[in-house]
Amino acid sequence: MLHFHIITLFPESIEPYLKSSILGRAIKNKLIKISFYDPKDFAVGKHKRVDQRPYGGGPGMVLEPTAMLRAATKAMSRFNLDIKGTAKIFFSTDGAQFDESMAKKLARKNPVRARGRKRPASNGARNILLICGRYEGVDARVPKILKAKSVSVGPYVLTGGELPAATVVDAVARFVPGVLGKAESLERSRVSSPEVYTRPEILVWKGKKYRVPKILLSGHQARINEWKQKKPGK
Q1: Which helix (H) or strand (E) holds 170?
Q2: pLDDT at site 112
Q3: Cα–chain-centroid distance for residue 200?
Q4: What share of the chain is helix, strand, coil (3-state, %, to 5)?
Q5: In this structure, what is the dihedral angle of CA atoms 161, 167, 169, 173, given to the nearest 10 degrees?
Q6: What is the architecture, at CATH level 2, of domain 2-173?
Q7: CA dihedral 45, 43, 88, 149 (to 10 degrees)
Q8: How far apart are CA 135 and CA 64, in angstroms?
Q9: Which of the residues 66, 103, 139, 161 could staple to 91 if both were Cys, CB 3.0 to 4.6 A apart?
Q10: CB-hemisphere CA count at 13 Å for 112?
Q11: CA distance 160 to 133
Q12: At what angle do helices 162-173 and 100-108 cross, to 10 degrees?
């Protein structure tokens, strides 16, 4: 099983997506598991605040470190702090670019037992810790203390790390054996194309006809594969 531990202030913003369709089926079949940890539940102080004004001035608020670290500690206690090889990801605009290669590596990365320890983490489950920021970000000491890898899902800024977390879960889960259905399991081995077509052969829309490319109706698989490998318009 691959266990995702997501630290977020707003689990409700992505939970429905992660529990639907293919991912929902994977959870039901115990191929993956997703746990949420809300820093608000670990806030300290009289007012239980999780955000504070940044030192040095500037707009917005910053997520304070204590609640974030306590949430992370709660998550990590499930797979033991002394287990090496557990992936810890902190979403940041200047992080390493998330791609297919990273997704595959995360899916197949196994926890390494600490020296002298006989029992693997979480009964052998592989674990990925995902730390979602909000507002102006998270106190920089959090990823340093956790030794988390800084990762970016693209060259743009989002309002929080929840969408990147959902993206990582979706992309990584696809490489877990059994997550994709029978037909979908062939997806990475077959020749694919950014352009796909289905019935009807001739689509009439607002008086104009749109046809399926003739090559796809030819039955000549070698030529069809050659067409699929070409970029649209080439």
Answers
A1: helix 162-173
A2: 45
A3: 35
A4: 35, 20, 45
A5: -170
A6: 3-Layer(aba) Sandwich (3.40)
A7: -50
A8: 11
A9: 161
A10: 6
A11: 5
A12: 70
